[in-house]
Specification:
- The complex is a heterodimer of chains A (about 160) and B (about 500).
- Chain A is built from seven helices and no strands.
- By secondary structure, chain A is an all-alpha fold.
- In chain A, helix 1 packs antiparallel against helix 2 and helix 5 packs antiparallel against helix 6.
- The model of chain A has no long low-confidence stretch (mean pLDDT about 85).
- Chain B has about 500 residues and is mostly helical.
- Chain B has one domain.
- Chain B is globular, with a radius of gyration of 22 Å.
- The C terminus of chain B is likely disordered.
- The chains are: A mainly alpha (about 160), B mainly alpha (about 500).
- Chains A and B meet through helix 1, helix 2, helix 4, helix 5 and helix 6 of A and helix 9, helix 10, helix 18, helix 19 and helix 20 of B.
């Protein structure tokens, strides 16, 4: 039995069941209605999930899988930080405006992703973040008339 | 006809239009190359600039943007393994591995040359066989479209390297995601959770950017802190386009087949280059003498994808010009652009505004040459992208993706959507579920469902209507054969693996 594949098969089946329940909640009409295709798709998802699950339960575990999993968790912190930074960037777009939110996001993301073996050139990262944010904003705001949020800088930038 | 074509060339080679076209192709290449920015966006953003231009200049600029953006997608597909546009999805399958093997320049050169040839082939098709081909496409009804969609969906199994169940699941899930929003036919609101932003469903741009670009950034984040091992990519000098004449000649049959697929699919409204590049890739793999090399970095895969997607340009223009039916989102905006300039596409266009039609043909040909020259010149610059560390490049690309998503409807909601699909794409990578079938399911899902329900209405609820229609019946039979063949192939492969004592696991390379 391979634990990872069992989890994947289980998740596939669960996704199918959830979609089926959501599809069943749709208003019913006579004949083929808006719930028909979602219903067919949901049953396909459940069947494929079960096929994967049964296959995973029958497969023998591969040696070294557990140690692989331990190694993989090391990068999860960086993944978590990256997701938090992206979410923070999106949430800050309206209140802070595109230029400030982008400069902050880029600076912090550069720091988070820098390999441990390299030294961290903080002033360079700050300059790159500011220059990239300004260049992207100016190109799209003035070059293509795309109304990117300006935030507190609205009085100067619009 | 040739007199009109010469008149067209005289018009587009006038200094004003020519300069506009050079700028249009260059801007288009940048939009195509940057993930999140697409041909649709390039044309939509530049459309207002054409208001003050004459019809010939305005349309030539839009065509230059279209050609540049369709081809530009190959740059990020190869260098970053992120397709710049949906039409370059299959380019990542072999372009990415070629780049990792140190053959990035060669992959780019192959992609550029065959993009050019694909465009020229499609212009020839447009000019010579447009009216008759368009008539065939016009005769297709919902039964035929449903059958074509089902047949295309069954090809998903071919894209499922490893576990077929996971590949098909990805396609079904993509189809399921496409059901969000207002249902076809009866306009029932589905799976929107009261969010008005979801009424129109998810945009292909947000799904694509999330599943490929954002997922790639998260994937890089997972290993980016690890100490750098191995030598950095070398900026080798390249001669010409980076490949030999023998390699070029060897790819001609593949290119012809892919161009025919690209043109054929481009003509069918609603499918477009987003699908044709993947179908051409599958066809190339099936016909190849070395199918095992696909996905590991063979030029055959890049040739198939890039020839087919650019061949779709002329293909999509056929129903647009002859019938006024846009083949995809890009041509839908082009239709708007034509109408802004007082041009009403349709069969009468070839009679009432023949000189303008041939100006469009000339603009397509000139744009193809400009694309070849600008990308050849830019090849050295693109390769220099390899020298930029990924931990610097990818966050900047994420910001550009956010701009692209925001530009769809000026909503921050669309940026949240790309993040959500990014997490889903990363989960796919971790679970060993392939991403390409998800995209195919998402693209073809609405067409399949709409055609299914309309077809049933036409045949008054009789399912046999799909089988008794000769074209629809043939495609459905092909779909059944395709599934049986894939199941048999998978069964044989598993028997061989069991015999050799190997355990092959699902996953996307």
């Amino acid at each position: 039995m391979r634990l990872k594949d069992v989890i994947v098969g289980g998740a596939m089946t669960a996704a199918g069941i959830l979609y089926l329940r959501m599809g069943n909640a749709l208003p019913e009409k006579e004949g083929v209605d808006a719930a028909t295709v979602p219903g067919i798709l949901a049953w396909m998802m459940i069947a494929l999930g079960l096929i994967e699950l049964v296959g995973a339960l029958r497969r023998p575990e591969v040696a070294g899988e557990a140690s692989e999993a331990t190694g993989a968790t090391a990068g999860l912190l960086t993944v978590g930080l990256t997701l938090a930074l992206i979410a923070g960037f999106i949430a800050a777009l309206r209140p802070l405006g595109f230029p400030i939110a982008t400069a902050l996001y880029l600076f912090l993301q550069f720091l988070v992703l820098t390999p441990r073996s390299s030294r961290t050139p903080v002033p360079l990262y700050a300059g790159l973040a500011l220059a990239s944010a300004a260049l992207i904003f100016v190109t799209f705001r003035y070059g293509f008339d795309l109304l990117l949020p300006a935030g507190p800088l609205v009085a100067w930038l619009n | 006809m040739f007199d009109l074509l010469i008149q067209g060339f005289v018009a587009v080679l006038s200094p004003q239009i020519f300069i506009l076209m050079v700028a249009g192709v260059a801007v288009g290449i940048v939009f195509g190359a940057v993930p999140g920015l697409t041909a649709v966006m390039a044309i939509a953003l530049c459309l207002p600039m054409t208001y003050g231009l004459g019809p010939a200049a305005g349309i030539s600029l839009l065509i230059a943007l279209f050609v540049g953006a369709t081809s530009g997608g190959l740059i990020s597909a190869i260098l970053l393994k992120i397709p710049g546009t949906p039409s370059s999805i299959a380019t990542t399958f072999d372009g990415g591995p070629m780049m990792e093997k140190g053959e990035g320049a060669k992959a780019l050169g192959v992609g550029i040359v065959f993009s050019f040839l694909g465009t020229i082939a499609s212009v020839a098709a447009l000019a010579f066989i447009a009216p008759s081909l368009a008539k065939v496409a016009l005769s297709f009804g919902p039964h035929e479209y449903f059958a074509i969609a089902v047949f295309s969906l069954t090809l998903i199994a071919t894209l499922s390297s490893g576990s077929m169940a996971k590949g098909i699941f990805a396609g079904v899930l993509g189809f399921a995601v496409s059901t969000v929003g207002i249902a076809p036919v009866d306009a029932t609101t589905r799976f929107t959770f009261g969010q008005v932003e979801l009424n129109a469903g998810f945009s292909i741009l947000t799904v694509l950017v999330g599943m490929f670009a954002v997922a790639e950034i998260i994937k890089v984040a997972e290993t980016s802190r690890n100490p750098v091992t191995g030598a950095p990519p070398m900026l080798v000098k390249i001669k010409g386009f980076g490949f030999t004449m023998a390699e070029f000649v060897g790819q001609i049959p593949n290119a012809i087949r892919s161009a025919l697929i690209g043109i054929g699919i481009g003509i069918l409204p609603g499918i477009g280059a987003g699908t044709s590049n993947i179908i051409a890739y599958i066809a190339a793999k099936k016909r190849s003498k070395t199918p095992e090399q696909f996905g590991k970095g063979t030029i055959e895969g890049v040739v198939a994808s890039e020839t087919a997607n650019n061949a779709g340009i002329g293909g999509a223009m056929i129903p647009l010009l002859t019938l006024g039916i846009p083949g995809d989102a890009v041509t839908a905006i082009m239709l708007g652009g034509l109408m802004i300039h007082g041009i009403q596409p349709g069969p009468m266009l070839f009679i009432t505004q023949a000189p303008l039609v041939y100006t469009i043909f000339a603009a397509l040909i000139v744009s193809a040459f400009l694309m070849l020259l600008l990308e050849f010149w830019g090849l050295r610059i693109f390769i220099r992208l390899l020298a930029i560390p990924k931990h610097i490049l990818l966050p900047v690309i994420l910001v550009l993706c956010a701009v692209g998503a925001f530009g769809l409807a000026s909503r921050v909601f669309d940026i949240w959507t790309i993040l959500a699909f990014g997490v889903l794409g990363f989960a796919f990578v971790k679970a060993g579920i392939p991403t390409a079938p998800f995209i195919i399911g998402f693209i073809l899902g609405p067409m399949a469902e709409t055609s299914f329900r309309r077809g049933l209405q036409l045949s008054r609820g009789d399912y046999m209507g799909f089988l008794t229609n000769p074209i629809s019946g043939s495609f459905l039979a092909l779909a059944v054969l395709s599934i049986l063949w894939q199941t048999y192939s998978e069964f044989r492969a598993s028997q061989r693996a069991a015999g050799a004592g190997l355990l092959k696991l699902g996953g996307e390379d």
